[in-house]
Design a protein that fits this description.
Elements: H1 3-41, E1 44-46, E2 49-51, H2 53-59, H3 64-72, H4 83-97, H5 100-112, E3 137-141, H6 160-170, E4 186-190, H7 199-208, H8 211-220, H9 222-248, H10 258-276, H11 285-322, H12 326-335, H13 337-341, H14 348-372
Antiparallel strand pairs: 1-2, 3-4
Helix pairs in contact: 1-11, 4-5, 7-8, 9-12, 9-14, 10-11, 11-12
């Protein structure tokens, strides 16, 4: 065979063989990276928490200092097979500190001496945002097993526990949830339904023979409807105040998007650190790459979620107002009153006090009717 042909064939084999070898190596690196990423994302039980190694990195501030501290504790695996050892060392550290929170607190104190930018993103486990609601509700103490009727006759009226809760609510020492939203031992009553007598109710009363009882209950609820009307009027005045302030205040809504901007800045910071890769010569460089990539992705998701949450809540207020339901618009303003006005427009306090007073009167009437069996 011609020597030139042999040389060409030899070079071709060497070239294609080298390409195939490089492709195999790239595939191995990709698989190794994906496997390590999967294991570092996987959550395991640690005390009362379900955590992943990424959660630890995130809670420590997602910074190169967090990497250094994790590396110091040997929590950054150099390969997939070493992840179990990292978890074992983390369990030991938590046990030595007494709790995961104590471990975090001690670690963040050490980091804080050198690095404070991670604090600009706020609480890394809590996404702030405006509160949304689809109906006006009011919290009243929930009827529990101890309040339920028993075989033995019991005196009529609320239990001692319920009386204490009512007194605390009436005196302003109890804050059930956010504004008028129920939590804990409270349940929510839909204000748009309670006290009404619809055509369906009348028809059902005729059918089942309970029309007289339904009409009697409706009549007893007349004071409840009056209190509800006063609450709606207070909510409408609060909405009018909100609309006037929003019209007169340039950039009124900008502070509400603070969470969106902070998480956006956090994603930018992480992306810049990922580009610099100060850890590129460390044995745990791959683990650091994985943590930073996941941190960037999570920050961007949180930024988008914060924006969408705020936008939806504001647009819901405007939608109700455009439909003529200013009371519901005022209800949403009340639920988010501190986000809208605190530190900027202190006159909102008086409007909110009117809403709270009307809410307390309505709560008392609902409880009274419920104790009488008329609700």
């Amino acid at each position: 065979m011609d020597p030139i042909v042999i040389a060409i064939l030899t070079l071709f084999v060497l070239a294609t063989g080298g390409t195939a070898t490089a492709a195999v190596r790239r595939r191995k690196r990709t698989l190794a990276r994906l496997g390590l990423q999967q294991d570092m994302r996987a959550a395991r039980r640690l005390e009362d928490h379900r955590l992943s190694l990424f959660d630890v990195f995130w809670d420590l501030g997602a910074s190169d200092f967090a990497l250094e501290l994790m590396a110091h504790h040997d929590l950054l695996p150099t390969q997939r097979e070493a992840v179990h050892g990292s978890w074992s060392r983390l369990s030991t550290l938590v046990e030595q500190h007494g709790s995961y929170e104590a471990f975090l607190e001690d670690s963040l104190e050490a980091i804080q001496e050198f690095f404070i930018k991670h604090k600009q993103a706020g609480h890394r486990r809590r996404l702030p945002g405006l509160t949304e609601a689809s109906a006006k509700t009011i919290p009243v103490p929930r009827i529990t097993a101890e309040d339920a009727p028993t075989a033995e006759p019991v005196p009529e009226g609320p239990s001692a526990r319920e009386v204490r809760e009512r007194r605390a609510l009436r005196m302003g020492r109890q804050d059930p949830g956010n504004g008028m939203m129920a939590a804990g031992t409270y349940e929510e009553i839909n204000l748009d339904r309670v006290g009404n007598l619809s055509a369906t109710d009348l028809l059902m009363g005729v059918v089942d023979g309970s029309l007289g009882d339904r009409l009697e209950a409706w009549w007893k609820q007349r004071r409840l409807r009056q209190h509800r009307q006063r609450l709606d009027e207070a909510l409408e005045r609060l909405y009018d105040f909100y609309a006037d302030v929003a019209r007169r205040t340039p950039a009124f809504y900008e502070p509400l998007y603070d969470a969106h901007l902070r998480w956006q800045d956090e994603a930018t910071r992480l992306r810049q650190e990922r580009h610099r890769r100060p850890w590129k010569n460390e044995t745990w460089a791959l683990a650091a790459d994985v943590l930073y990539d996941d941190g960037i992705a999570l920050s961007e998701r949180l930024s988008q979620r914060a924006y969408e949450s705020t936008y939806r809540a504001i647009e819901a207020i405007h939608d109700y107002a455009r439909r003529g339901d200013r009371a519901m618009a005022g209800y949403l303003v009340f639920l988010n009153r501190h986000a809208f006005f605190a530190g900027r427009h202190q006159a909102y306090v008086e409007h909110c006090r009117e809403v709270e007073f009307a809410t307390a009167r309505l709560s008392e009437e609902i409880l009274r009717l419920r104790d009488q069996g008329s609700l």
